Amino acid sequence: MQVHLIDGTYELFRHFYGAPSAKNAGGHEVGAARGVVASMLGLLEGGATHIAIATDRVIESFRNELWPGYKDGSGIDPALHSQFPLVEEALASAGFVVWPMVRHEADDGMAAGAAMSAADPRVERVFICTPDKDLAQCVEGNRIVQFDRRQRVVRDEAGIIEKFGVPPAAIPDWLALVGDSADGFPGIRGFGAKTAAAVLARYGRIEDIPSDGRDWDVSVRGPERLAQTLRGGLDDALLFRRLATLVREAPVSASVDDLKWTGPRDDFDLVATVLDAPDLLPRIRRLAEDQGH
């Protein structure tokens, strides 16, 4: 059994900015939601059987209470934002399991789903389907892997180390030092990607980095200056690491059995009409028939 975990919010953004605008008969923007549903049917057509889609029902999460600059819903195009509830309903009607996050983020949902799935010995592999750097921390060996569906790149633990220079467990520390502009925290001044990787590859965790740069036995430029900067910004670094650490106890399904696609709901014909997507109907009916649903 293989499990595919999808970042529904990322998919919605990707289709909104990657495809032309499309409005239904009522004049409502539906193109991105339609694209996400079509993409998920493509995943089924490719052989996937157990799928869960995590979404950000709201953009804000508990992290906004920890750091005022953390990403929020400001600046999101209204035509995109209006499709947040639509894509959840459309995916659920198409028969997919949807995990809408409120206090947490879609990334937390995927992290929790990966942990839940990997705990089941029947699961051969878990595909975390997103290019988001945060999710690299969830990769384990070659059983939990990160899959960039657009680039068709799969990264196991060795692939994460090759890309970032640190193992998955150190990704939150790496992000804390480097910063994450997408999530709205700046990192620690002076620590670029390569410097942070070199230091963490040697010491593992932020709190284990020697406070005196003269004690560093790693080849980086200006260790004393970097150590001084880190000393002064240690509280921020630890906070940024907390922001970057995914919550593996976020609310998700209890079992991988719940993730098996069993065909669309009876109201999917109506949803296809709302999406102005009659072409989805023969696809989903064929899939249901092929799988005996």
> How far is the first residue's CA from the last residue's CA?
18 Å
List the strand order in the largest sheet.
3-2-1-4-5-6
- The fraction of residues assigned to DSSP E strands is 5-15%
What is the mean pLDDT? Answer: 95
Number of H/I helices: 13
Taking pLDDT < 50 over at least 5 consecutive residues as the criterion, the unreliable ranges are none
Class computed from helices, strands and strand pairing: alpha/beta
Which sheet architecture does the biggest sheet show?
A: 6 strands, mixed
Helix fraction bin = 40-55%
Order of helices and strands: EHHEHHHEHEEEHHHHHHH
How many extended strands?
6
Shape: elongated
Gyration radius over CA: 21 Å
Overview of the structural elements:
- This protein is an alpha/beta fold and 293 residues long.
- The protein has 13 helices and 6 strands.
- The chain has helices at residues 8-18, 31-45, 63-66, 78-81, 83-93, 106-118, 157-164, 171-178, 193-203, 223-232, 234-244, 268-274, 280-290; strands spanning 2-7, 50-56, 97-101, 125-129, 144-148, 153-155.
- The chain has a 6-stranded mixed beta sheet, sandwiched between helices.
- It is elongated and about 70 Å long.
Describe the structure using short key phrases.
single chain; 293 residues; alpha/beta; six-stranded mixed β-sheet; 6 strands; 11% strand
